[in-house]
Structures are given as C-alpha cells and as structure tokens.
Amino acid sequence: MEKKFSSKVITVNKNSSVFEALQKMQLNLIKRVVITEGTKPLGIITERDINRFLKEDKTARAINEIPVKHVMEKNIVLITDDLENDFYQCASKMENLKIGSVILINKNGDLSGIVSRTDLVKAYANLFGGKYLVKEFMSIKIVTCRKSDSLKLVMNLIDQNKISRLVVVDKNGIVVGLISTNLLLSNSDFFTRSISNSRDYLVPSSDDVTVSDLLDENLVTINESDDLAKAASLMIKYKISGIPVLDSKEKLVGLISKTDIVKAFSLVATHEQLKLKYKEMY
Questions:
Q1: What gap in Å lies between CA 200 and CA 51, rounded to an integer?
Q2: Comparing C-alpha atoms, which of 137, 106, 105, 135 is closest to residue 121?
Q3: Contact by Cβ (8 Å): 137, 259
Q4: Prediction pTM value
Q5: Is the separation of the CB atoms in 117 and 258 below 8 Å?
Q6: Are 50 and 20 in contact (CB under 8 A)?
Q7: Cα–Cα distances in Å, from 114 out to 14, 80, 269?
Q8: pLDDT, tens digit, for every residue of 100-121?
Q9: Which residues in the chain show pLDDT less than 50?
Q10: Based on the number of CB atoms within 10 Å of its own CB, is 129 exposed (0-12), middle (13-18) or buried (19 or more)?
Q11: Are 10 and 101 in contact (CB under 8 A)?
C-alpha cells in the first residue's frame, strides 16, 4: 500500500512556521503537509486551515512567526498500512468526515504514507470505468467570475462561498477557464519577496493583476453524460482538481471535482453489493 498507492509524504516538524509549510505546498504543488515529531505523525495542516486561522487570529504576527503547531489539525485520521481494502476505507473516511487525506502508519505507529484525494481519483480512473456518469455526482452550485476581475475579488468570492475554485465565464456565460486557490498559491510571488507583516500570501503585490493574467489557455471541460472515470483521468493527466461540466449545447451546468469522485469511490462497493443481492433475489 505505502509504496504502490500512497503519495509521497511531505512533512514539517511541529516548531516549523506557517511560512515554511506554505513554501512546501507551493514547491510540491500540494494542499497539505503532515506535522511530525521524529517518525510519529502529530497533525496535518492545509492551506484552508491556514487561511481560516489567519482570519480568526487577532495578533499581528507574520506567517513566518506563527508555528504550525498552533494551526494544525490534531485529530488526524490514521489507518495501518497493512489493512485489506484500505482504499475503500480511505474513501469512506474522506467522504464521511469531509477530509482530504488519510495518514498511513505502520504497526509501530510510525508515519509510512498518506492517501490523498488524488490517489483515489487515480485509482478510480483505472478501476471503475462504466460505473457512473459525471452528471450523477457533479455539483450544480457554480460560482463564476470574469477574466477582468481582480484577484482580490476572486479571493473574497472563494472565502464567502467556502469553495476552492471559480469558473471563469465571458459576457455570454461561455466557460473560458477555471481559477482555484491552488493556482493562486502556485503563482504567488509572496515567497520570493522580503517577508513583511502582510499575511496576504495569495494576493499579488500589484493591484493590477487580474484573473486573465493567471488563466491557462488549455481549458479542460467535460460533458455531463461522460463517464465519471473520464473526468478522473483528465484530472490526473492535467493535474487539476476540478472541471467545468457542459451539456450537449455547450452550456455550463455543473462542476465536477476530486471530492465528488471520492464520494463515488466510497459508494462503489456498497452499490455492487446491492446489485448482487437483488440479482440473486430476482
């Protein structure tokens, strides 16, 4: 399990700063790092945890002055790396607890791996073609923005709606792109500037930067009637976490994300057992 399926574990020790954790997220294109003491996992910290903490923290500390142990989630979900059907267990725990990863430990309690949404999406793409359609799991709650919008407005929309991404549309409602907190973090120039007391690490130093400055020209979309496994494959191929969903008339009707695919993964075994049960009855 730990060698074949889990992601490489990126860690920091409990006394590291939030700045160091964010640097590792940016450099490794990940959303979370594990907090350790020696070989033992103590907690986990995500970009969303950091953003929420900074909104609630009343001090004036800069992010290089805040230790991760003050921000990390301590109630981490662990499973041992020798369990059978551990991918199903991971998917079920992620869906039920609304978390983005499960930490693997060996029989001695030492950190041995981490299973993320990306790992499950990769497995889903390879194992479950033909099981579900995109429209069965996509979200129909869509928050949009325009290419001319400022990144500060984008951040406000993301925070207000408690989401990770916005669909970018033109004046006619045609999809032209997708912008996410991942994209903002990977393009942030905060970490190349001298550290100040500013905590706006996702917001560029210039107020003139707009959505159009970050958009990738290679737009990835999918049809609502496509196989969910196709959406999973596209996410892995293009290293993205969400895809705008279109209908047969190219109209925006939804958004499919890695979270949605994890939900589908968690239901596959149950659905197959029910099918077998009723097949035997009838």
A1: 9
A2: 137
A3: no
A4: 0.85
A5: yes
A6: no
A7: 18, 11, 22
A8: 999 999 999 999 989 999 999 9
A9: 1-3, 197, 278, 281-282
A10: middle
A11: no
